[in-house]
Amino acid sequence: MNKPLFMCIVDRLSNEVQFFRHTQDVTGRLGLSTLQKCTAAIRVLVYGSALDAVDEYLRVGATTARLCVESFVEAIIDFFGDEYLRRPTPDDLQRLLHIGELRGFPGMIGSIDSPEVNFSVNGNPYSMAYYLTDGIYPKWTTFIQSISLPQGSKAALFAQCQEAVRKDVERAFGVLQA
Hints:
The protein is mainly alpha-helical. The protein has two domains: 3-84, no CATH class; 127-178, no CATH class. Helices cover 53% and strands 7% of the residues. It contains six helices and four strands. The protein has a two-stranded antiparallel sheet. Strands 3-4 form a two-stranded parallel ribbon. Helix 2 (34-47) crosses helix 4. It is elongated. It starts with a helix and ends with a helix. The relative contact order is 0.08. The mean pLDDT is 83. Pfam families: Plant_tran.
């Protein structure tokens, strides 16, 4: 996330949400700043880290981190939901259907409503969900990793298509983390 966007969100939250205001406790000590609370929430959401993981980096305990995330998500939905969390338009749906068709999944708008796919590996039929991954994931049957040195046109096509889609996903998460 770029700094001006982040600071715009921080400013709006500090002005409009009581939880995010920088306040003093009864002894006169300042509590967590708006910046700390927003950073804690975003780190938990973007990196998928545990709530107690922000303790070391930001000095925010797990309970406070949970409150930061809950308050942050509620505020983002309230303030920006109508503009950014809208239902897709018919044009959006057509574009998504076209992209799905190009990738070999006709009729699929998103992963939630994707068609059931049954496949076989070495003659063994599978009907469970599977996920296209890269080499950092464990070698579980549900994780289909790319072929690092493809042998033959079929394997090369699979590796090329998987890498293209994986890069799309990485770019999307890169935008969130920037």
